[in-house]
Amino acid sequence: SNLGASQAQRGDFDAATATHKRLLALAELRLGEDHPDTAVAYESMGVLAHHAKRFEQARDHLARAEASYAK
């Protein structure tokens, strides 16, 4: 999201993570876990976690995105 990206750009990774978590939850609820847009939300969470140096979280989110893209 633009808000989450702006928060991350300012270095407020906790706020950006909260924003992206809300968007991911909405995507899962409305679109389902395997929808391409939900995969994009997982990918965004992974990239954000990587920038915040939360590498295990980044790996988990990116793996989930990759699995969704493969379906």
- Helix-strand sequence: HHHH
Oligomer: single chain
What is the percent of helical residues?
Answer: over 70%
Strand content: under 5%
| Poorly predicted spans | none
Q: Total helix count?
A: 4
Q: Based on Cα principal axes, name the global outline.
A: globular
Question: Gyration radius, to the nearest Å?
Answer: 11 Å
Largest sheet descriptor: none
* Alpha carbon gap, first and last residue: 24 Å
Class per helix and strand makeup: mainly alpha
For the residues shown, what is the average pLDDT? 94
Give me the count of strands. Answer: 0
Structure characterization notes:
The longest helix has 19 residues, at 13-31. It is globular, with a radius of gyration of 11 Å. It has helices at 2-9, 13-31, 36-51, 55-70. It contains four helices and no strands. With 71 residues, it is mainly alpha-helical.
